[in-house]
């Protein structure tokens, strides 16, 4: 056999005999013609023959679907074939025969299995081209996030996931046994990324975060990948909002440029990111909902999923924007490190970014004066002791700073119109699911 | 005040008045001249004045070390100044005054604090230029690892850190409460990266791993960043060894090209990576130790730290190489998924890479046939049930594959000659340390 090439390289070898290896994704006969689809790590190729003896190794080797094959063949241009090329004059070698029937079908355009079957058998389901496309896009999102921030002088950090005190609140944390002492899984790198603003001013992290939320919804998972950024010497939260706009636009442009096949396969509708994303103050948003829908949520401390959907629709109709900033969430529902709005101290210098009517990003300005932290902890009736290490950063000088956290899986869910966030990650963790 | 520029941009503004912001790192008088060092997220700049009134804002604002300042000044070329430029004709503004004396000195060339003080106050110690240099190099290692593998058609993945079964063994795992069920923190992404070879063939992951090792040594931490790669359709473990050589050479070249200042500051001795890294079989290594040192370790199932040091010295003397592959570790000490050497089945198709006499990377070929896994689990007296999800990958066809895991912190420790691995990470976790 010749040296193997990847399926992605085949189109540049028309007229040559080449060798490929991969999984037998489908095998069907039409009249006297047999069509094989071979899948490798990057794509698929159709191999075609009318000669039974070319297929003999499959029969002799009892090689069913998902068998590993090496096929040598002639690359022929064929406009009707998927990808515009196919292989003729086949020489097939069975590398590893499989007789077992896969738990779900990998050779249909869409996976027909229900979500439970798909997730139970994610190990195999993830081989399906539509699943692979999602995870490739996920890699593209991470790569673009890092590149965009690196170009803007941010330093990548990795911070501990086993922590002594929870960042956000006492609830919703996973507890673990740390050599006989209680410890927790980090709900976010919030404290550490702030501390590292004191070191590098501008930092980002891509890593897992853990939320022990007991409700099982279509938009929550218990472990997800957070795209975190934090920067110092800001004006206020609007500096962060401008940065986030840049990052999102860069990610979407990167996907459009480099992942056209995946986006087409998944039927993605790519949104435009406006030069300036429209924004509305929290209080005005509640007033607007009252005016438009006659539902009175004024005075509520937070927005409900329904509120977010209404606001998303409004942003689309009013500004043609899939994105909407809601600013100034009430201080009483934001964590203690949140910076108040100097003009209206009951509201905060914080924001959520809604994307197609769902919260995608939370961010804002943080407190940066040591005294302000002491007061905020007292106000929140939290003890100082567990936070002393964190407070040290502020004791020795921190600039005005802020940041944001993008839920990587939610971004893909909304971008691709996937109905359940669990489907955007390779091996989701939820209330009932610890395997695969 | 003018618009702020970063210290890294100052050398291109000689003769201009500019504005910088940052932390007051040092302040000292010599004769009638006062020297200030201001530090921002990227570097430092010396500001010099003979005029007391230029310094008046510091006195009036009671601004001690680590105060946040904005300084406007004229950029003057001065060969004797650190970096070759300094600021004159100062206009100083105190952004945030600090009176508290920092718990350790940030304005000496080296940190004089002992390791316990340094780690207890890592929040502040990490601001020291030598600490920053380490973490910047860490970011460079991650970036180069990702880039090198992406160019070679690897896909980045993120896999779960909360897992149902431990990968390597029952020992040394952190247990946590997952909604009333026991779960564990992943000791490595081993199972998941193998499974994903069935999806993308070539995958990598940069992420935290957790080891509940109860011994407190200078080369162990309980949470670290693992640089993992895994690929399919390999010949055997030598395919992986060649890939690892490429990756290491790329990382070192990347650091040399892009982090010269950091490497100089830390006094790093950059090693050459030989075109072909010398290798020795495990059994031959034990024989060699006996011949050279008259210590008989033949028949031991593993190498001790002293054995590794001896082998490192030998590789340096014999081949002038800081790197040495030890291949063929005995099967009985390797995890159950290890592929045996077909010629000598008591030894494995696995390797360790020693760097300057310490194990830096572990890797090898894995089993890939379903039947081989069933036999290996039985041999290891492990039950099948907890591994069923993992075995599904092999049931439905996996190619010959293998991979490696580089300990990111160990790489920096050995590269920089740092005596304790805890010093290579921002906020280390050890037997006694959960904060900061």
Automatic annotation (TrEMBL), chains A, B:
Ranges for domain Aminoacyl-transfer RNA synthetases class-II family profile: 135-436
UniProt-listed InterPro entries: Aa-tRNA-synt_II, aa-tRNA-synth_II, aa-tRNA-synth_II/BPL/LPL, Asp-tRNA_synthase_2, Asp/Asn-tRNA-synth_IIb, NA-bd_OB-fold, NA-bd_OB_tRNA
Oligomeric and partner information: Homodimer.
Family affiliation: Belongs to the class-II aminoacyl-tRNA synthetase family. Type 2 subfamily.
Localization: Cytoplasm
Example GO biological process: aspartyl-tRNA aminoacylation
Record-linked PROSITE patterns: AA_TRNA_LIGASE_II
Catalyzed chemical reaction(s): tRNA(Asx) + L-aspartate + ATP = L-aspartyl-tRNA(Asx) + AMP + diphosphate
One family name in Pfam for this protein: tRNA-synt_2
Protein name: Aspartate--tRNA(Asp/Asn) ligase
Binding site for L-aspartate: 168, 211, 362, 366
Origin species: Tengunoibacter tsumagoiensis
Matching CDD domains: AsxRS_core (cd00776)
Function in brief: Aspartyl-tRNA synthetase with relaxed tRNA specificity since it is able to aspartylate not only its cognate tRNA(Asp) but also tRNA(Asn). Reaction proceeds in two steps: L-aspartate is first activated by ATP to form Asp-AMP and then transferred to the acceptor end of tRNA(Asp/Asn).
Annotated region (Aspartate), positions in chain: 190-193
A GO-annotated cellular component: aminoacyl-tRNA synthetase multienzyme complex
Keywords tagged on the record: Aminoacyl-tRNA synthetase, ATP-binding, Cytoplasm, Ligase, Nucleotide-binding, Protein biosynthesis
Domain of life: Bacteria
Protein residues bound to ATP: 211-213, 359, 407-410
């Amino acid at each position: 056999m010749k040296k193997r090439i990847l399926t992605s390289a085949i189109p540049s070898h028309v007229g040559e005999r080449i060798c490929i290896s991969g999984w037998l994704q489908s095998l069907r006969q039409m009249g006297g013609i047999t069509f094989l689809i071979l899948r490798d790590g990057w794509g698929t190729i159709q191999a075609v023959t009318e000669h039974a003896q070319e297929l003999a190794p499959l029969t002799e080797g009892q090689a069913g679907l998902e068998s590993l094959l090496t096929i040598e063949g002639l690359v022929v241009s064929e406009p009707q074939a998927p990808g515009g090329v196919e292989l003729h004059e086949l020489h097939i070698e069975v590398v590893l025969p499989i007789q077992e029937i896969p738990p779900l079908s990998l050779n249909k355009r869409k996976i027909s299995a229900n979500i439970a079957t798909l997730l139970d058998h994610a190990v195999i389901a993830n081989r399906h081209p539509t699943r692979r496309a999602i995870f490739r896009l996920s890699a593209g999102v991470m790569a673009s996030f890092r590149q965009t921030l690196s170009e803007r002088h941010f330093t990548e950090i990795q911070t501990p996931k086993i922590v002594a005190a929870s960042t956000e609140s006492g609830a919703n944390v996973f507890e673990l046994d740390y050599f006989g002492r209680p410890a927790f899984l980090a709900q976010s790198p919030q404290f550490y990324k702030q501390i590292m603003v004191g070191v590098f001013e501008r930092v980002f992290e891509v890593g897992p975060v853990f939320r022990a939320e007991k409700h099982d919804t279509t938009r929550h998972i218990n472990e997800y990948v957070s795209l975190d950024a934090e920067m110092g010497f800001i004006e206020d939260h609007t500096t962060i909002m401008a940065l986030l706009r840049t990052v999102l636009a860069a990610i979407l442009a990167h996907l459009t440029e480099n992942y056209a096949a995946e986006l087409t396969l998944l039927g993605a509708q790519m949104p435009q990111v406006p030069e300036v994303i429209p924004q509305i103050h929290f209080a005005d948003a509640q007033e607007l909902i009252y005016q438009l829908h006659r539902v009175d949520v004024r005075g509520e401390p937070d927005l409900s999923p329904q509120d977010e959907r209404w606001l998303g629709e409004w942003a689309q109709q009013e500004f043609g924007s899939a994105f909407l900033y809601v600013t100034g969430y009430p201080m009483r529902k934001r964590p203690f490190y949140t910076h108040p709005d100097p003009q209206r101290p009951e509201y905060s210098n914080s924001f959520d970014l809604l994307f197609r009517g769902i919260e995608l990003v939370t961010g804002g300005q943080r407190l940066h004066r040591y005294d302000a932290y002491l007061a905020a902890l007292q106000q929140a009736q939290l003890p100082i002791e567990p936070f002393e290490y964190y407070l040290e950063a502020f004791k020795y000088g921190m600039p005005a700073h802020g940041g944001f956290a993008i839920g990587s899986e939610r971004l893909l869910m909304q971008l691709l119109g996937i109905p359940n966030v669990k489907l955007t990650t390779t091996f989701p963790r939820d209330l009932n699911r610890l395997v695969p």
